[in-house]
Design goal:
The chain is an alpha/beta fold. It has helices at about 10-25, 35-40, 45, 65-70, 70-75, 135-140, 145-160, 180-200, 215-225, 240-245, 255-265, 285-300, 315-325, 330-355, 365-370, 415-420, and strands at about 1-5, 30-35, 50-55, 85, 90, 120-125, 140-145, 165-170, 205, 230-235, 270-280, 305-310, 360, 375-380, 385, 395-400, 405-410. Strand 11 (about 270-280), helix 12 (about 285-300) and strand 12 form a beta-alpha-beta unit. The protein binds iron/sulfur cluster.
């Protein structure tokens, strides 16, 4: 059995360990192979877990299938013999990331439960935010070649797919490492244009893009093209200048506010703006927390993703935490205050969208809701709504949000009509 792990927080590590134990208990005869970021960050720790047969870090994930199968290829390529033995487990993990670009599975409409799958086009990150373990577990930034991206998008469209989410660890860095000069110079903006010009994809959504990578061209593309979902997620982390500096983030709060305002001015108030915010970074004073809270309150955000700081071994934040930890009770209290702001922001955005005509895509509806004759849909601007009718997933519709999560379906949008509007 293969267990893919995350290591972004101490909680993620804990869950991975618990999952491995559970897998082992339920399948005592199984060969357990652990891979992913935890396997990369702390291979010895993972190898020491009872019942783990092999540990495959991200550096060797490309060869995971061969290792799992203990195939002839792996044997003859010297891969198996290249493993270290730690206790009873074979371990493949080092810091050679150059060869470790991972191609995801082919994207198909209707495959699995995702109507709007992610297409990962960028891996790794060369920044050094002091709280973040990703540069250690994923290596430097690498991009999927533009040609390959376009091919993957068209493959998805050919299977009936309508909406794709472009994703990456640091999506705004796409293209900077590629040999092709246009990709390198044009970056994400250029790639988005190519997707719009050269594929028939009906809707493209961008996942998280760092604030300073929202160039004026990228903002204009989002504003001017209906095929790009009106949804921008900009990681903030803190609204306090001092905390941002200690986090080694590359922008100040006023830079962030400038980008948010530029997006809002260009795209209008139907744009859903989202932010990641971290609470309890080492040394975060009461004054800094208040500064962050007030800053977040002042922005026209539609939602927040909130995280308590989690010290990660090997990062600068780990050492800072040893010197100036914020007490757990204080972190809890600050999280509660930010959660209140998040609820207010979500409610305000939903209320603001009430009665508007929005385009949406139906999703795979949970059985319980379906039994009630209802259908889940996601609007272009990231509002999840429930329609009072039964529809299959992946249908483009026009909706008007009402009270709560309810929305009225105005009409089913035919695909051709959709493309005419977009032209
Ligand atoms: S930019 Fe994002 S992925 Fe890169 S180091 Fe900072 S938090 Fe981590």
């Amino acid at each position: 059995m293969v267990v893919n792990t995350c290591s972004v927080t101490a909680e993620a590590d804990r869950e991975a360990r618990a999952f491995v134990r559970r897998v082992r208990r339920r399948n005592p005869a199984a060969r357990v192979v652990v891979t992913g970021c935890y396997a990369q960050r702390a291979p010895e720790e993972v190898a020491a877990l009872e019942g783990v047969s092999a540990v495959v870090g991200n550096s060797h994930k490309e060869w995971l299938a061969a290792i799992v199968a203990e195939s002839d290829h792996a044997q003859t390529s010297g891969l198996i013999s290249a493993a270290r033995l730690i206790g009873a487990a074979e371990v493949w993990a080092d810091d050679a990331f150059a060869h470790s670009w991972i191609e995801g599975a082919r994207l198909e409409a209707g495959a699995g439960t995702q109507t709007r799958p992610n297409l990962k086009i960028q891996e790794g990150c060369g920044n050094r935010c002091s709280f973040c373990v990703i540069p250690m577990t994923r290596g430097a930034s690498r991009s999927m070649a533009a040609e390959r991206v376009l091919q993957r998008v068209e493959e998805f469209v050919a299977t009936g797919g309508r909406e794709l989410v472009l994703s990456g660890i640091n999506l705004g860095r796409w293209g900077r490492d590629l040999d092709d000069a246009q990709s390198r110079r044009g970056g994400l903006f250029w790639l988005v244009q190519q997707i719009l010009d050269q594929t028939r994809l009906e809707r493209l959504r961008l996942s998280s893009v760092e604030p300073m990578d929202w160039t004026s061209e990228l903002i204009a593309t989002m504003a001017d093209n209906r095929r790009v979902a009106s949804h921008a997620h900009l990681p903030l982390q803190s609204g306090a200048d001092g905390v941002l500096r200690r986090m080694h983030r590359r922008y100040r709060p006023w830079h962030y506010a400038e980008k948010v305002n530029a997006l809002r001015t260009a795209c209008g108030d139907e744009l859903a703006l989202g932010a990641d915010v971290m609470v309890g970074f080492p040394g975060e004073t009461e004054v800094e927390f208040e500064e962050s809270l007030q800053f977040v309150r002042s922005l026209p955000l539609a939602y927040l993703h909130l995280f308590p700081f989690s010290p990660r071994p090997g990062t600068a934040g780990w050492a800072m935490h040893r010197e100036q930890p914020v007490a757990d009770a204080v972190v809890k209290e600050r999280m509660a205050q930010m959660q209140t702001v998040d609820r207010e922001k979500r409610a305000a955005f939903r209320a603001q969208m009430r009665g508007r005509r929005l385009s949406a895509l139906t999703l795979n509806t949970p059985e319980k809701l379906r039994a009630e004759g209802r259908t889940l849909a996601l609007t272009e601007n990231f509002l999840e709504v429930e329609l009072d009718c039964k529809l299959p997933a992946n249908e483009p519709v026009t909706v008007r949000p009402g009270d709560g999560r309810n929305a009225k379906m105005e009409r089913l949008v035919k695909s051709q009509e959709n493309s005419d509007q977009q032209a």
